[in-house]
Amino acid sequence: MTEEIKSEVISRRRVFSLLGLAASSLVVATIPVSPQVTPHGVELSVDQAQAYTYRRARVTTRRVSRRAYRRGYYY
Question: Which among 29, 32, 58, 34 has a CA at the least distance from the CA of 44?
Fold first, then answer.
């Protein structure tokens, strides 16, 4: 029962092909997709990302501070 194990060398083209396939599948896996039920059936839609930037944080803080000042709450 002696079986010879043949080691097969993978070419560079095949390695780069597999790396490209793995990278593209990672990119596709990170896209936020959610199913939506419609009268026509189930559809897939891509979720919209809402960025919370530094400017948005300043505007929100300023707005909250103004409202608190009008109500008599001082920081």
Answer: 34
Q: What is the Cβ-side half-sphere exposure of residue 65, based on CA atoms within 13 angstroms?
A: 7
Written as six digits, the tokens of 60 are 């929100």
> CA-to-CA distance for 32 and 39, rounded, in angstroms?
23
Alpha carbon distance 5, 13 (integer Å) = 24
User: Residue 21, exposed/middle/buried by CB under 10 A (0-12, 13-18, 19+)?
Assistant: exposed
Q: What are phi and psi of 74, to 5 degrees?
A: -110, 140
Question: Domain extents for the chain?
Answer: 12-71
pLDDT digits (tens, 9 = 90+) for 18-60: 999 999 999 888 877 777 788 888 887 777 767 778 888 899 8
Task: Check residue 74 and give its pLDDT.
Answer: 59
